[in-house]
Amino acid sequence: MTKNEKAALAGIRGIAAGIELNLLTRPAPDVPATVRSLLRLRLASWRVPADLAEDVLLAAVELVSNACDAAPDTEIAFRARLDPATGALWVGAWDTCPDVPTARRPELTLEGIDALPDDHTFGGWGLPLVAALAADCGVTRTADGKWVHAVFSRSPR
Predict the structure, then answer these.
(1) Mind listing the domains of the chain with CATH numbers?
(2) Are 69 and 29 in contact (CB under 8 A)?
(3) What's the pLDDT band for 13 if we cut at 50, 70, 90?
(4) What are the Histidine kinase/HSP90-like ATPase domain coordinates in residue numbering (predicted)?
């Protein structure tokens, strides 16, 4: 992330009458919950319908959790943006890990579910879930990291 990007993301701020939410932070266990709380308030101020807001919140938490896991020792960023012309919502998480995330499709069998560890260290569900909820999702590389993002439309999927 460039110095200009870091400066632009320093703290939480609204741009152009509150159509953007930005957060720059160090990964910590409470970051996903913090993003969820802040984003819930912003989505309400944007008058996003409750069912769509829940999808956006779930995706945002997944993206931020993945960023925290991918780059636990560096800063991560979160951004949500409303396009007032179309009503589209863009949410993304930035981290310094150069690896592009890949969606895994865990195989589900009754025996496999019973064998999952109780400590919830298994994964592979997040990106397929985000892809199923969003109208579009993807990865954009930056000079020193990547944004993993999802786009939501107010129209039905």
Answers:
(1) 3-152 (3.30.565.10)
(2) no
(3) very low
(4) 33-150
